[in-house]
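Design review, sub-item: ligand-bound model
Attendees: FS, YL, KQ
YL presented the inputs for the calcium ion complex:
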Amino acid sequence: MRVALLTLFIVTLSSAAFAAQNFDAWLDGVRKDAMRQGISEETVQLALNGVKPIPRVIELDRKQPEGSMTFAQYYDRVINEQRIKQGRYEYRKHRDALEVAAKKYGVPAHYIVALWGIETNYGGNTGGFKVIPALATLAHDGRRSDFFRKELMNALKILDEGHIAPNNMKGSWAGAMGQNQFMPSSFHNFAVDGNNDGKRDIWGSLPDVFASTANYLSRSGWKEDERWGREVKLPKGFPKSLEGKGTRKSIDEWTKLGVTLPSGGKLPNAPGLQASVIAPDGLNGRTFLAYGNFRVIMKWNNSTYFATSVGLLADQIAQ
Ligand SMILES: [Ca+2]
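KQ shared the predicted structure:
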């Protein structure tokens, strides 16, 4: 018995030691790769020296999120009175910076605030993980290595460009960064310098956060003069086959099919607009008409629940 335990202990110890050695060797490969891609040796050393895998990141990656949650449950979790009230407060407080971004990119301010609110509770919860070790952990882990290794390289480039110091580059366990939770690749594609100081600081500069969010939506096809969609009431016997993003019709056509405002009133006409009926909890749950901008929000996060909640929060902030 004693011998068996001792053997087990040695085996466990050596496999842990092997894993550590394996990670360090792998990280050496990342260093070489980064320098081949033109990232300075100074940045590579500063960012990667002493980096160790974070067990908690693996644990969170293994959890299945929001598997069986209904839209109603999701909505209650994401939007409450406090979030709406604070959204209205932040909207007034930062009106000038918001309006600059709204005007420049053609995205109304209440959508910028709603995304900020849902992503990080208006900057209050940006995720406490250091992005480089978190991404290194996921890139080494094997489940989605290629994706996370690319994001790790993108993150090193951001450091090399001097937008943020390694210690301040914080984000979610999966590497979504700053107040609007951009992945490093989204940062490269969409982050902009809103306050003209030469840095794209989505961690600490609200003008940068607002401009970057607006730029993301604008470049993804946002139409300035359209809403995201709206809540609607479906008539009795509405065919299930017409529900879903696959079917697009004009407001006129939906009106002819009996779709109305929740009050029963007639839908405002909007010539040229194409809309889909969305029923995330089935035809007996809350139902919505989703316009083109709804699809734009889904490019940010490919979730019907998410896009609908952003739209509904934006509406309430603007009230
Ligand atoms: Ca800036």
